[in-house]
Design brief:
Blueprint: E1 6-9, E2 13-18, E3 21-26, E4 32-37, E5 51-57, E6 60-70, H1 74-87, H2 89-92, E7 97-104, H3 112-125, E8 128-133, E9 135-139
Parallel strand pairs: 3-9, 6-7, 7-8
Antiparallel strand pairs: 1-4, 2-3, 4-5, 5-6
């Protein structure tokens, strides 16, 4: 578990926002969640995403969400997520479930380009990528 630039909570809703883009975790199971501010705190001076969330079960990290709140440059957001995944390999190498989220101001979520990007990302990283616009909720 990452223990710098973090807050740990069991709140029902954990929310981060930037420029009207919102990512929320709906914590129906009351898991302990470690919210890490990655951008300019945990990782500085190199490419990185905005936040990551570690879901903790039985004292171990069971799920990691990497989150980038972005304007419309989805390709750059993907680069930021991939850089953070690589940076966190040691911390998260034994975590079986990892997911990446981009919350963009605009992007055709159901379009062919979205499907191609998500397939390419999964093939390269073995992690599922979700791309949403303005607000994304994840229930655990």
């Amino acid at each position: 578990m990452i223990s710098s630039c973090n807050t740990t909570t069991t709140n029902k809703i954990i929310r981060v926002a930037e420029n009207k883009r919102i990512f929320r975790i709906i914590n129906d199971s009351s898991f302990q969640i470690n919210k890490v501010k990655v951008d300019d705190c945990y990782i500085k001076n190199v490419l990185r995403c905005d936040y990551l969330f570690e879901i903790i079960e039985k004292m171990d990290v069971s799920i990691v969400f990497y989150v980038e709140l972005k304007g419309s440059d989805i390709n750059h957001a993907i680069e930021q997520l991939e850089a953070t995944i690589q940076y966190c390999l040691n911390e998260h190498n034994r975590v079986n479930k990892k997911e990446c989220y981009i919350v963009a101001s605009k992007f055709p979520s159901a379009g062919t380009s979205s499907q191609v990007l998500r397939k390419k990302f999964f093939k390269k990283n073995k992690i599922q990528l979700f791309i949403g616009t303005k607000k994304t909720d994840v229930t655990i």
